[in-house]
Input
Amino acid sequence: MEEWMKNYLVPDKANVIGKIQKYGVPEFFKWRSVRKYMTDYQKQKLMSDYPLNIMVEVTNRCNAKCIMCPRTTMMTRGTGDMNYKFFCDWFDSLRVSPVYMTFHYSGEPLLNPDLVPMIEHAHKLGVKILRFNSNGILLNRRKAEEILDSHLDVINIAIEATEEIHNRLRPSSDYNKVRQNVLDMMALKKSMHKKLPIIQVAMLITKDTTKEEIDEGTEAWKGKVDYIIYDTISTIGNQVKDYGVISPPKKSCSDIWTTCCVLWNGDVVPCCVDHNATMVMGNVKYQTLDSIWRSQKFEALRWMHEHDCVPENSLCGQCLKVA
Output
């Protein structure tokens, strides 16, 4: 990793102070306490009593064909949406609500008309932080108003540093349309006097990215959104082509102690890498998520991670070996 990249990929003190000033001390400390709570379990390799972080695949349909996305290149499982009733059925059976919930996985969340009702139900039952990622294509005024009126905490919108990079990596997504959708949502947020959700744009940094390109992207969004984040690009455990990974191999998996993913059809997988659902731990149609979380199958997987004996040729092994 080049030295300049660290300045963008590692949060600095100014960003933290900026968040406190913008969202207030209570909101900032809510975020910090949730992250610390999860990290404490992850560092010690201790299973939390219940899933602290649940990723919900509200749909695995998508209106984009990003070339570095496993959904585009290798996903073969069936497509569909999770409806509101089914979401409530399995979610209401939890002994304790998670502290963190993400409403995306292998698709575009805005394609599901039940997205906001699910967010509201999760908030009502006490989830502390609610967020989702979007490609921003469908973020018209009606959708923006609906989201701004909800209890969503963060919306993360994928847009690249320059129009050329965006249209190359995301050929079915129009850079200028997405940019205008984000700007319109920010203007609407201001007119509605809303502090939340945090509206942030996310740019990818690869080995081929230049500092000049990232500087150009940063300048284009400075003062126009709540937050700009920079992310590394991944092969998803060697499942997709390497477009320039810069993150180093991981020594161990942190997610397995606190996180699970519920797919649109009810299948539960351990993490966000398993886009083809090859490691199904159970299904919330037939079992409670609590029982799946504590199942022998899930415990055996955690045991392998705890004792550093994950098979190299497994999905987990590949993920640890190749970022």
In short: The first helix runs from residue 3 to 9. The longest strand covers residues 198-205. Residues 87 and 118 are 7 Å apart (CA to CA).
